[in-house]
Amino acid sequence: MTTPSGAPRPFAAVGSARPTWRPGLAAASVAVAAILLAFVGLLAARPDVALLGAPMLLTVAYALARPRGVPAVRLREQHVRAEAGRFTGALEIDDGGASTVRLRVSTPGFRSVEALLAADARAEVAVVSARTGPQEFFRTDWIAEGVDAAFVTEPRLVPAVRVTVEPAMHALGQQPLPFRLLGLTGAHTGRRPGDGDDLHDIAPFAPGDRLRRIDWRVTARRGTQSGAATELYVRRTRARADAVVMLVVDSRDDVGADVVTWAGGIPVPRDEPTSLDIAREAAASIGRAFLAGGDRVGLEDLSVRRRGVRPGSGRAHLDRITYRLALSRPEGDPSRRLRPPQVPSGALVVLVSTFLDAQSARMARLWRASGHRVVAVDVLPATRTDRLDDAELTAYRLVALARSTALERLVREGVELVSWTGPGGPVAASVALAALRRARPAEARR
């Protein structure tokens, strides 16, 4: 996010309207005090009292030399990353005849910071946030002041930086495969005969078989009679194929680890990821692992009715999926789906959800009943209940009981469950996904 020359590019600057100077409160107060002293001295016939206001008037006269320049404050980036973490920026000031500049920098979810800087200063600002998705940083309100604040500008605003923060991606190992591999080429060994490396069977030579596939040893044992070859045998291999994977994200829930924030009255701290941040991270990591293996990956969102991202492959497709994940968010009241989103035949469905309600679990069961292999990724953060009262704690226990019952039912009906937020975090989830690859269900071997 820098210019080709390497110089920082401004995120935002003041508008085209120039700030105007006006007399400040300090100069007006000193002038009024000097005039009062002179008036009192005249009334009391005390020249010495009247002369006390002369230095004050001279000071005001010197300070009232109106600045001729136009001050400006600009916010420039400084190593801003489009991933969750530390975001930094630099405030640069063009004095324009000003002596000092008062600043107030604010970011939603953080305490505002105020500072008084010299007019030619440069200040760095930074926040640490674990959130992903559309974010705003470093809204800056400022006022420039002349000498002794005799003249000041009207309050001005540098708009906040708008950044779409993409989820971080973890390196994962092997991933589970669908029950059926339908692609014509790829990195996996399919079940149909074709060009590949793994042996399928030995069969008599037929029109269309390549001569290099002839197995002369088998031909010598089976296809000879009285020392003469009567039939040729060929080695048939299994064709290579790719997998079709559909990532399904349930963005209807965006809850934090502290259960007291679930009602929405108390905000989740910005340094703690919510369930939606974790869901974006899990989906992006799993999608990158499949795309790195040459598979095709698509994306659906249970909270919206819009068409998702169709299955594709390549680096550009990963960027497309990551950007769509960053934009996913709860939209209005969640609507009840009668049918799950349509996915390609034979695709592996990876459902990323908190499973706090019955709809996501019902979608997983419907996909499983229609013959898809379904992997459910649980992204509910490890909950904290220390700030709940007795009634709230009872309600939470009922919700947790219903959730655990729904997950147990999913496992009984053939849905494979992986926890992204359990002990070990993404590392343990990577091991669990690799174990699913090695232990394929019985349907995959039919």
Automatic annotation (TrEMBL):
Signal peptide: none annotated. It comes from the Bacteria. The chain crosses the membrane at residues 25-43, 49-65. The keyword Zinc-finger does not apply. Keywords: Membrane, Transmembrane, Transmembrane helix. Residues 204-380 form the DUF58 domain. PANTHER family: BLL2464 PROTEIN (PTHR33608), POSSIBLE CONSERVED SECRETED PROTEIN (PTHR33608:SF14). This is DUF58 domain-containing protein. The lineage of its organism: Bacteria, Bacillati, Actinomycetota, Actinomycetes, Micrococcales.
